[in-house]
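User: Need the bound-state model for iron/sulfur cluster:
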Amino acid sequence: MLQLKEVKETIIAGSAIQTFDFFIQWHLTERCNLRCRHCYQGPRRPLEMTAGEVCDEIDGAVRMFRAWESEQDVRVSPSIHFTGGEPLLYRGFWDVVRHARVSGCRVAVMTNGCLVTDEEARRFRDLDVSEIQVSLEGPPALHDSIRGEGSFLSALRAAERLARAGNCVSANVTLSRLNAPLIEETVKIARDAGFGSIGFSRLVPCGSGGALLESVLSPGEVRGAYEKVLSLDAPGFPVVSGDPLAGTLRGGAPPADCGLTLSGCSAGFSGVTIASDGAVMPCRRIGISVGNLRRKSLRDIWATSRTLWRLRDRSSYRGHCGSCSYWPSCRGCRAVAYAWSRARGRADLFADDPQCWRIGD
Ligand code: SF4
Ligand code: SF4
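Assistant: Bound-state model below.
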């Protein structure tokens, strides 16, 4: 079994990173007040950890960060992104947000916005939550057709309330064939509604979204969409994407022989997902559990999971991704690769990203 020492040397010192931005995406609940067509959750509703258990696990994560700092001579900049389901439905939501802030973690919250009142907006500000992401799909009719009747107005009202209270609020768009032709219009809607920025990511055809395979963009369409996104980025209103494929459009490729992860897909590298029942996953959209906090600490799971180690190892990757010069800063979206290969009857976490336009160039 791999030891903690190897994690330290390989994941932190080995990456030659001085400040390690590490995030935990924490799904507090899978309960939701909406039924979005592209949701990555399945129909199962697992048990939830109590707020006390979540706070204990935050303490454990902070101990892990401090140990990395003292043993590796790096600064860890941790953030926790609380989400759901709809996180505001979680009993004890404000307790865990407060605990994370007091523990020294930056906090972001991802919400559909429907339950944000003026009171909630003030509480976010008072707790100095760094960012509140509200999902937006595009113009009103399209948004409502994906997320449900009336959800567009709720999202815009939430953005307005949050911004008025002094919060940093960003729109979060899931790109598919349904809304990719409307990127410019969607950016304008977000700007006019008081959002401070907008971010785009790809539809992952898993969970309920598995029925939307025909809406998945082709490689050429993904490239066109991200070129459009990056062209609209402006100093006063950031238009961004954290998708590793979008990242390859900025700057050149790293040295071809670089075997270390530098950026790109965070799965196994710079982030981890905790599901509402304590299951730890490389990414929620991958949906594979690599351990459970009820049985093992996050530090142990991060250090010893074979799946996480394979994600960090170039030789695990098949096809073009494994030999690609962009591997250190990309690795494709592992969730898309997994969902796509599974839909074709051969689930493979290390398959090529089927939406990469460089494959076949
Ligand atoms: S082949 Fe894989 S690693 Fe290379 S750019 Fe495409 S998705 Fe990224
Ligand atoms: S698997 Fe995809 S969605 Fe998950 S962290 Fe990687 S790029 Fe992001």
